[in-house]
Amino acid sequence: MSAQPEFELPKTSRDELIVSGLVIETRPYGESDLIVTILTPEIGKIRCMGRHARNSRKRFASGLDIFDQGRFVISGGRGDLLNLKSASPSPSFLRIREDLDKLTCASLVCEVLNRLPSEHQDQKNQQSFFELIHLSLEAINEAVSTKGALKAVCICLANICKEHGIGRPLSEVEAGSKLLRQMMNTLEDLTGRSLASRPMVEMMINGLRAAGET
Fold it and tell me: Smallest Cα–Cα separation from 38: which of 95, 98, 105, 85?
C-alpha cells in the first residue's frame, strides 16, 4: 500500500496548498475581508484571511459560510493566519441551516472546536478526527427530534474532550443533559470564557424537561 502524501503548511505567499475541509467559523474583517477557520482532514484546524472574500465572485464564487464544505487554496501568511487564495465550497448540512435547534447544537460543536487549541497530530489522526466531527454533524443534521440532536452533540463533545485529554470515556448510554452540562462547565472552566451557544442549549434542555422528555 502506498504511503499517504505528507502535507505541510505553506510558509510564503508563493507556496500554495490545496486542501479539503469544512468551514467552522467566519468573521468579517474590515470592509471586504473575511477570517475563515477551516477544519481539514490533511492538516487539522487552520485560520485564513480571505482578502476581498465578501465581494469577490471570481475567487469565492458562492461566498463562504459556516458548515460549507469544499476545496480551498491556501498560501503562507503572517503568524498562524494563512492566506485563503480561493475556495470552491458547497452548502452542506441543509437541515442544520433550516432548524434552529439543530443549528444551536452544531454551532456549539464549532464553537468548542474554535476554543480548544489545535492538536499537531499525524495525518492519519487528523483524518480520523475530521471524520468524527463530520459524522457528528451528520447525526445532528439527521436527528428526528430535539432530544436526538442534544444526544448527538453530547457524544460529539465527549469525543472532542477525549481527543484533548479532557474528561473520561463515554458510552452512548450515558449521553444526556446532565453530562452535557458537566462538559460545558468543564470547557468553560478550561478556556476561561462562557460558551456563547450555551444559553440556547439550556433553553432546549429546559424545554425537554418541561415536556417530561429528559
Answer: 85
| Exposure on the CB side of residue 20, measured as CA atoms within 13 A | 8
Q: What are residue 85's phi and psi, to 5 degrees?
A: -85, -35
Q: What is the DSSP string of 81-127?
A: EEEEEEEEEE---HHHHH-HHHHHHHHHHHHHHHHSPPP---HHHHH
In the chain, where are the structural domains located? 16-90, 94-210
Question: What is the helix (H) or strand (E) element at residue 189, kind and residue range?
Answer: helix 177-191
Cα–Cα distance between 173 and 116 in angstroms, integer? 26
Query: 1-26: per-residue pLDDT in tens?
Result: 444 456 666 666 677 888 999 999 99
Q: At what angle do helices 177-191 and 146-163 cross, to 10 degrees?
A: 40
The CATH number fitting domain 16-90, selected from 3.40.50.1970, 1.10.760.10, 1.20.1600.10, 2.40.50.140: 2.40.50.140
What do you get for the CA distance between the two ends of the chain, in Å?
49
Instruction: State the DSSP H helix or E strand holding residue 36, giving kind and residue range, or none if neither.
Output: strand 33-40
Pairing status of strand 44-50 against strand 81-90: parallel
Phi then psi for residue 21, to 5 deg, are 180, 180
pTM of the predicted protein model = 0.85
CA-based angle 127:136:194, to the nearest 5? 105
